[in-house]
Amino acid sequence: MKVYLLKDVESVGMRGTVVNVSDGYAANFLFPKKFAVAVPDNDEAFKKLMHSAEVKKEVIASKTSMLAEHIKALKITMRRKTHDKVKLYGSISTSEIADALADHGVKIAKNQIITDKSIKEVGTYEVTVKLTSKLQPKFQLKIISE
In what helix (H) or strand (E) does residue 127 lie, and over which residues does it extend? Predict the structure, then answer.
């Protein structure tokens, strides 16, 4: 059965898309929770709804790609107290990185920040920001001693 998703459903699809699901899944889960509606065969109003959803998706995708380009251009420097000029007294958390990004005009959640390893020493690190599953720009984070 073809259904139009009204909300994001994990492992099924994103809001605004038409997906094929089993009749039972649609009738017992998606429809009662108002996650989806059945796709009529030739309804003009539904086609207009689909078109507006596609336009919204394109706008969001362009804004996200512009944000990704802005993040790629960033080079953030943070000053921290150190021991022996190398080791930090505490590691740099993802919330601190999110705050530093917010100071540069990029507002994201701390769970969108991915580091290869914990940042415990002075140096330059490459930090990944997960905007979408496919769009993950990286920027340079430099930690220096106070």
Answer: strand 123-129
**pLDDT tens readout for residues 28-70:** 999 999 999 888 766 676 777 777 778 888 888 888 899 999 9
- Neighbouring CB atoms inside 10 A of 39's CB total 15
The answer to whether 130 and 103 have CB atoms below 8 angstroms apart is no
Tell me the CA distances in angstroms from 1 to 8, 25, 34, 87, 89, one per residue in order: 18, 9, 16, 59, 58
Do residues 94 and 78 lie in contact, with contact meaning Cβ atoms separated by under 8 Å?
A: no
> Residue 4 and residue 39: Cα distance in Å, rounded?
6
| Structural domains of the chain sorted by starting position, each given as residue range(s) with its CATH number in brackets | 2-63 (3.40.5.10), 68-145 (3.10.430.100)
Structure tokens at 4: 């139009």
Please tell me whether residue 63 adopts helix, strand or coil conformation: helix
- Between CA 52 and CA 63 the distance in angstroms is 17
Which of 80, 100, 92, 98 shows the shortest CA–CA distance to 125? 92
Q: What percent of the chain has pLDDT over 90?
A: 56
- Segment holding 51, helix H or strand E: helix 44-72
